[in-house]
Amino acid sequence: MHRTCLLLALGDSLTEGYGLPPGRAMPDVLQEMLRDAGLPVTCLNLGLSGDTSAGGLRRLRAWLARNAEKLQAHTMGTAPIVAIVELGANDSFIGIEPDEVAANLDAILSLFAGHGIPALLMGWQATMADTPDYADDFEDLYADLAAKHGTPLYADTLAGIWGEDRMTLHDGLHPSIEGVRHMATSILPLVRTLVETALAGADHATPPCPPRH
């Protein structure tokens, strides 16, 4: 049976593709790369510019509530789902306490785990924080959550992008088309492993028994 893996990309403007032409956001580029590697994947962009970890949690709960059929197909092994979680940048910009951000991300990862959806967690370096302690605590929360949930971690979402003129838009923060490609290429091995494992698991899933009358 031919199966397609659904990749949910939950994030903020870095996922949504702020300032970029349609079809050039990170989930779009990832989908292209994964398909070029022969993997049947459809990426769903759940990025929202300006969103925080709390907002992402609310949106994920709403998406799960609206998509019971997709979740049932995932549970039966006919349509596997994996996820990327890229949130926290806006929390750091407005000074949300790291413990609160950690609680929100913990709830997001727990929701995915509760539905058997493996996830990649993308970290954020709060280099613009007012104090070094805040920046350290913010960076640590991602490693702590990844260890708690057994989740793969890409520690710095903008590694190799921030501060590089050709990699960012005019604001010096949001990735350009080249920056997005760099980001997608950097996380591709981790995402590919998630997708390949999910598809392999679906191939070996036991079909549900027909109802007895």
UniProtKB/TrEMBL annotation:
TM region positions: none
Gene3D superfamilies noted in UniProt: SGNH hydrolase
Domain SGNH hydrolase-type esterase: residue ranges: 9-180
InterPro entries given in the database record: Ester_Hydrolysis_Enzymes, SGNH_hydro, SGNH_hydro_sf
Domain of life: Bacteria
GO molecular function annotations of the record: phosphatidylcholine lysophospholipase activity
Pfam families listed in its UniProt record: Lipase_GDSL_2
Listed name of the protein: Lipolytic enzyme, G-D-S-L family
Organism, as annotated: Nitratidesulfovibrio vulgaris (strain DP4)
